[in-house]
């Protein structure tokens, strides 16, 4: 492209986030599928995050739980599976083949090699034995339709066998074949998580055979995934893209070129937008507030987050592993945190008062009231707890 790349300032980046992540007034989605399409992926490590992330973006959030359960477990228009960075996400069903080819194959190869290596160090059976158990497990799952690891072990008792991991190290532990193998099969795209045993907040999932999808060429899949993500999250720097995808920098650069991504300038330096997305974007007419759950894909969307999350808030809002807790948003930036107390009350605290006065307080209070209505009698505790969330919930 000729000329100097256009500068995209913080205000415009926040405007893009507001519209494309369906957080601004009037931007709400009609269905969970529309939310997932807009975000590319919903973070699925904490089951509650999927539902709360959808509810925060629906125009009519009252039916969030049944609508999301329908999409996940009846219509199968949303699929919970391993994706970028060896992490569990919920994707639109039409994107699963792209995700598997672009990110899953490389992760799966490393995961299988690691499992075989760990078992060999522990003196456990070899790769041939593991393949036999795998075939038997998949056959049992095909017969049952959906099953827990314990149920599958009734059909394939070798799943109960254990081996010592990292013997002699400070993090030594005992692994069960079922836990490691089923996770591996998930990364390889052979199984997916099905309906949980308990409520929608439960992390005790059944397993099901993964839906069949066409095999795609890796480079083409990477280009397709990057185009989708830039349309949702651009502008993004090369560091953002490498972190979010988990790819090598050479893969990121090849996909950027193949996608025809356009260079722009942001405060961090060179960034990229989709080929047809270079025009300025105006912000919402009205200010907006949001209460987003722990690990929400907007809060975790970029590696470089200073433009929407002040660095001084990190110690209060993140755990030691870099997982973000529940966040309070005002006009495109994180200003504080929220939590649910044992009696169901939604409480929050604003840590950054810049531009967040009485109007913000009133808007956040309305969001909290709506969230309490969505939750009803359900109590939600984030899987990865952060300092301020724990303090507020106490």
Description:
This protein is α+β, with helices and mostly antiparallel strands. 42% of the residues lie in helices and 17% in strands. The chain has helices spanning 10-20, 32-39, 47-55, 64-74, 96-121, 127-144, 149-155, 177-187, 218-233, 238-245, 249-259, 314-317, 358-375, 387-393, and strands spanning 42-43, 78-82, 88-92, 146-147, 162-165, 173-176, 191-196, 205-209, 236-237, 262-266, 269-273, 289-292, 327-330, 333-340, 346-350. The strands form five sheets. It has a four-stranded antiparallel beta sheet with strand order 12-13-14-15. The longest helix is centred in the first third of the chain and has 26 residues, at 96-121. The mean pLDDT is 94. GO terms for molecular function: DNA binding. Keywords: DNA-binding. This is Winged helix DNA-binding domain-containing protein.
Shape: globular
The order of strands across the largest sheet is 12-13-14-15
Beginning-to-end CA distance, first to last residue: 55 Å
Structural class comes to: alpha+beta
Mean pLDDT comes to 94
Elements, N to C (H/E): HHEHHEEHHEHEEHEEHEHHEEEHEEEHH
- What's the domain count? 2
Radius of gyration: 22 Å
Count the beta strands.
15
Fraction of residues in β-strands: 15-25%
Quickly count the helices: 14
Unreliable parts: none
Characterize the main sheet.
4 strands, antiparallel
Amount of helix: 40-55%
Offer a few descriptive terms:
single chain, 394 residues, 2 domains, 4-stranded antiparallel β-sheet, 14 helices, globular, AlkZ-like, DNA-binding, DNA binding
Q: How is the topology of this model organized?
A:
Blueprint: H1 10-20, H2 32-39, E1 42-43, H3 47-55, H4 64-74, E2 78-82, E3 88-92, H5 96-121, H6 127-144, E4 146-147, H7 149-155, E5 162-165, E6 173-176, H8 177-187, E7 191-196, E8 205-209, H9 218-233, E9 236-237, H10 238-245, H11 249-259, E10 262-266, E11 269-273, E12 289-292, H12 314-317, E13 327-330, E14 333-340, E15 346-350, H13 358-375, H14 387-393
Antiparallel strand pairs: 1-3, 2-3, 4-8, 5-6, 7-8, 9-11, 10-11, 12-13, 13-14, 14-15
Organism: Streptomyces kebangsaanensis
Keywords: DNA-binding
GO molecular function, one term: DNA binding
């Amino acid at each position: 492209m000729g000329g100097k790349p256009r500068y995209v300032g913080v205000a415009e980046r926040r405007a893009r986030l507001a519209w494309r992540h369906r957080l601004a007034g009037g931007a709400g989605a009609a269905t969970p599928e529309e939310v997932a399409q807009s975000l590319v992926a919903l973070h699925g490590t904490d089951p509650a995050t999927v539902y709360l992330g959808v509810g925060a973006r629906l125009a009519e959030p009252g039916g969030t739980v049944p609508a999301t359960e329908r999409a996940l477990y009846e219509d199968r228009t949303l699929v919970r599976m391993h994706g970028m960075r060896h992490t569990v996400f919920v994707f639109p069903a039409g994107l699963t083949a792209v995700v598997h080819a672009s990110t899953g194959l490389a992760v799966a190869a490393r995961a299988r090699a690691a499992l075989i290596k760990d078992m060999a160090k522990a003196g456990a059976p070899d790769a041939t034995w593991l393949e036999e158990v795998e075939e038997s497990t998949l056959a049992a799952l095909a017969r049952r339709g959906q099953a827990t690891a314990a149920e599958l072990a009734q059909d394939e008792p070798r799943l109960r066998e254990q081996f010592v991991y990292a013997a002699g190290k400070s993090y030594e532990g005992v692994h069960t074949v079922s836990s490691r193998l089923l996770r591996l099969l998930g990364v390889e795209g052979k199984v997916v998580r099905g309906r949980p045993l308990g409520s929608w907040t439960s992390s005790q999932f059944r397993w099901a055979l993964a839906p069949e999808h066409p095999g795609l060429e890796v480079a083409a899949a990477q280009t397709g995934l990057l185009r989708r993500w830039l349309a949702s999250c651009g502008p993004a720097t090369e560091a953002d893209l490498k972190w979010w995808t988990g790819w090598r920098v050479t893969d990121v650069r090849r996909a950027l070129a193949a996608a025809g991504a356009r260079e722009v300038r942001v405060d961090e330096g060179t960034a990229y937008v989709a080929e047809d997305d270079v025009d300025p974007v105006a912000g919402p007419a009205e200010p907006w507030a949001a209460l987003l759950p722990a690990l929400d894909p907007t809060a975790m969307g970029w590696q470089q987050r200073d433009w929407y999350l002040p660095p001084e808030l990190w110690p209060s809002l993140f755990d030691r592993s870099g997982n973000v807790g529940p966040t309070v948003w005002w006009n495109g930036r994180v200003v504080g945190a929220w939590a649910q107390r044992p009696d169901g009350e939604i409480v929050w605290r604003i840590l950054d008062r810049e531009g967040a006065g009485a109007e913000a307080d009133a808007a956040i209070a309305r969001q909290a009231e709506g969230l309490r209505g969505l939750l009803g009698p359900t109590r939600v505790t984030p899987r990865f707890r952060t300092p301020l969330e724990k303090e507020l919930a106490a």
